[in-house]
Amino acid sequence: MNEYQTILAMYQKHRHYNRNVVLVSGVLLVAVSIFVSADVVRINPFILYLIAMGIAIFYAMRTRVESKNYQSLQRFLRKEKEIVKNKELLFFIDYQLANHYGNEADELFKYAKNEEANTYLKQLISEIASYYQYVTAQPVDRTAEMTFKNYLDSIENRQQELA
Predict the structure, then answer these.
(1) Membrane-spanning regions, if any (predicted)?
(2) Domain that holds residue 44
């Protein structure tokens, strides 16, 4: 499976994330309520509800698909209306930043108010957005082995050939 299809599958999980977390939380609350109302074991209900919500929080943390910088990315791009409206592109940018730039992206978001970091982050986002446009415009068979690094390398090679 190519990188783009993997990201699309993760995006589908992301779209259902909130619903699944609410569903798990609701089921746990109902189960604990039934257990408490049955009065099988004399135990403080607060402790049972606390355990149930701890399990729900653990589930939410383990099934989270987006990176820890997703909210920062949304705030950073709030002026870019076309990117913010396209949730798939926003998720794609977040995935590429987290996987290809890792700690560097964390630092850029931390210092996003710095003009130099802000400019570099905007440049990275525009490169990723252009890669997204390229991948979505190509047929599936042509992008089977294309990754973001390969895309950047091909652009660099073309620029060197032209020079």
Answers:
(1) 21-40, 46-65
(2) 3-63
142: tokens are 């042509």
Of 25, 40, 63, the domain-final residue: 63
Q: Within 10 A of 21 (CB to CB), how many other CB atoms are there? A: 17
| Helix axes 87-96 and 115-137, enclosed angle (nearest 10) | 120
* Nearest CA-CA partner of 99 in 120, 74, 119, 69: 69
Neighbours of 89 (CB within 10 A): 21
Instruction: Report the C-alpha gap between 122 and 76 in whole angstroms.
Output: 9
How many domains does one find in the chain? Answer: 2
Max Cα–Cα distance, the chain, nearest Å:
79
Structure tokens at 159: 């620029």
3-state DSSP call for residue 68?
coil
Q: Which residue, of 12, 46, 63, is where some domain finishes?
A: 63
Residue pLDDT, tens place only, 102-150:
788 888 888 777 888 888 888 889 988 988 888 888 765 654 566 777 7
Tens-digit pLDDT profile for residues 30-59: 999 999 998 888 888 999 999 999 999 999
